[in-house]
Amino acid sequence: MIAFTRILFSLLLMLLVLVGGVHANNDHALKVVTTTTQATDLTRILAGEGADEWVQITPLMGAGVDPHLYQPTEANIAAMSQADLVIYSGLHLEGQFDTVFEALGERNVRVYALSDPVKAAGFVIGGFTLSEELTNVDDPHFWFDPRNWQLAAEGLVEVLSEVDPAHADVYAANADAYIADLDTLYTWALEAMSQVPEQQRTLVTSHDAFQYFGAAFGWNVRGLQGISTEDEAGVADIQNIARFVMDNGIPVMFVESSVPPDAIEAVREAVNAGGGQVGLGVRQLY
Fold this sequence. Notes:
The chain is globular. The chain is about 45% helix and about 10% strand. Strands 2-1-3-4 form a four-stranded parallel sheet, sandwiched between helices. The chain folds into two domains: about 1-185, Nitrogenase molybdenum iron protein domain (Rossmann fold, 3-Layer(aba) Sandwich); about 200-280, Nitrogenase molybdenum iron protein domain (Rossmann fold, 3-Layer(aba) Sandwich), CATH 3.40.50.1980. Strand 1, helix 2 and strand 2 form a beta-alpha-beta unit. It is an alpha/beta fold.
């Protein structure tokens, strides 16, 4: 399957080279492709208002899309092959893109992972297993600690300034303002989370996406699925979480916006069958 995917993407990229690909409306604008909604938001914030005349941002994923499972389309590959810069989250979050990124690099398309400065600073949480081939991998959900997202913003400023030096001052000014906002956010969140009694700071969710949040704000986090939603929860996983919920008197669990609620519903049924009681959060986690 891996070999077939590699061949398919290579053929698509070769086809784009031969036919010239898809041309943007504004040939003078910096062409940037972003994968996840986080990457899109950060790029737009650093570009600032009124940047549409000189930066053309093409997002690949909309709100509520699961980046672990998203497979790039032919149109996505066309957009990336014509880009000046492709910005993605990294750490295998976009698990179906690895072969595409490799092929783009061979075509000298600049590809940048927002996780790079976080990884370089030693602030990633590692030691997870995705498959028999991928062991001791890093948790890709690094943005749930605002301090990590500050590093991502600083790294992206450098890259944008390299590919578009004419607007380097704009990127730097917008980054300074945003990083200050993130300082405020972290201070406010830390104070707010500290008001919850320590023995009650436990978060049970659909999949293991909130370890950085837990480390940043002092919460115990348990996910039904692993760090990737490709890891389907089995009966043993459901029973283990149900037992944890009952043993610790957890009153509520949470469903995530990009993860179907079926598995966490099965946990609730297992808790009820075991004589316990647990609810689901009224609001989804994003």
